[in-house]
Amino acid sequence: MDTPIERELALELVLSPEHSITVPARFTYHVHDPYAVHVTFHALSDQPVRWSFARELLVEGALRPCGHGDVRIWPTTADGSGSVCIALSSPSGDALLRVPATAVTSWLERTLWAVPPGSEAERLGLDEALAGLLAAPDGGPRPHGPRGPRRPDESGEAEVR
Description:
This protein is α+β, with helices and mostly antiparallel strands and about 160 residues long. It has four helices and eight strands. The chain has helices at about 55-60, 100-115, 120-125, 125-135; strands spanning about 5-15, 20-30, 35-40, 50-55, 65-70, 70-80, 80-90, 95-100. The longest helix is centred in the last third of the chain and has 14 residues, at about 100-115. The termini are far apart.
């Protein structure tokens, strides 16, 4: 499945405790990039702002405060409804965003269904890529590693006397 799992959401960009503005955003997940989530914000600029961070961070942040540095995520209750706060920090500035918890968790559930936690490495194709690198030029396996058999004096290690 190469089709991205996407969801358009309206986030609140918190400007002060009393004031926020709505920012449209697209949450995207690709099974071929199973550890990351990508968020594109269509905010106060001509160009969209893109952020990528660990899917695991968003999953955990929907349940309890987590993260440090550039991305911090935590659940909260505002006006009686559950939200997830996402704090982003960059050299260009800081942003505090709030998204309805049910919207982000339903999207996350779709990503977790597509690639269950713990199975991400299987989606990267590392075993197949490694097998391809180690295969003989004719496509068959190499009998003794990537450079073939060696004589005992060709170990590549210095002899200790």
